[in-house]
């Protein structure tokens, strides 16, 4: 992901200022983007804040953040313009948020007050010549999703067949542990650090019951100690860390670069209706800050930061109040059925996207997420 330059930062703030009226009108006309009745007048950004948390102080739905700020697509992809020490102001008259600092700097400085008693703000960025983006406020807590940015891995049925593989273990051990040696065969292409995967749990689309991908289990990380010196010789690796037991037959993939974690929560550009396929880790239910997979992905327009709302899938029940049918008979005998409505109970923050599958972090749920539940565009 590209770094956000100082010039782009100025343009982002100018865009936010220039589109203030439109953003405010859209926010006020959209009941889903309503401000909280007890929203504060301002919030000083501190280290440890997140965009989700800041927007949750002002808005009923944190995913409305880009609409209230009037952010365009490029700014959503590169929101490196909110830093600790800056102040977010709530302009109640315009129905929007503003970013800046008090002119004069004093909390009781009345000379800097504008219309309606609001403080005058200077919408100009602080110059940052190095580390731009590293101090920026992230969308969600980085440590929550960092372990999942390179795993789980969704692959085709035969996609890992040609990957380097563990062919033997130190002292013929069945399973490898930290600091053990693993002997690997295959083309490592001058790589030195690899993640170890084991294929693969099939992921079935709840709507069609067809397999649309395989979830390769992440086992740990190994590092090259000595490359093979002959075509028929194995590479020697040391096990750096182990998340699950690894052994002969497990496959290697290069450790990917660490991606930028700063993306803004936003609704999808088109209507999306997905189903929860699995809960990561092999459990049956997921709670706050756990990971689930859904049966929609890049092909349906999902991207990093997309927010979907979670619904309990309404079951179909027999209408036993229908006097024209017998309660003991099934639908094949003419008994009528009715589908119960899907009930909204939380939200899902998408952070990793494949063509047909996406992984999301469960946010703010009032009950556990279950396989088969619905994840769809905010209404």
Quick one: overall form? flat
Separation of the first and last Cα atoms: 30 Å
The biggest sheet, with number of strands, parallel, antiparallel or mixed sense and barrel status, is: 7 strands, antiparallel
Number of strand segments:
20
Radius of gyration: 26 Å
Structural class: mainly beta
Q: What helical percentage do the residues reach?
A: 10-25%
Mean pLDDT: 76
Order of helices and strands: HHEHHHEEHEEEEEEEEEEEEEEEEE
Low-confidence stretches: 1-29, 102-132
Number of domains: 3
Measured by DSSP, the beta-strand proportion falls in 25-35%
Give the helix tally: 6
Description:
Strands 4, 5, 6, 7, 8, 9 and 10 form a seven-stranded antiparallel β-sheet that branches. The chain starts with 5 loop residues before the first helix and ends with a strand. It has 379 residues and is mainly β. The protein has helices at residues 6-18, 20-29, 51-58, 65-69, 73-77, 142-145, and strands at 42-44, 87-91, 96-100, 153-155, 165-169, 181-185, 193-204, 211-226, 235-242, 251-254, 273-279, 285-286, 291-294, 307-312, 316-318, 337-339, 343-353, 358-363, 369-370, 374-376. It folds into three domains: 6-117, no CATH class; 150-254, no CATH class; 273-376, Thrombin, subunit H, CATH 2.40.10.410.
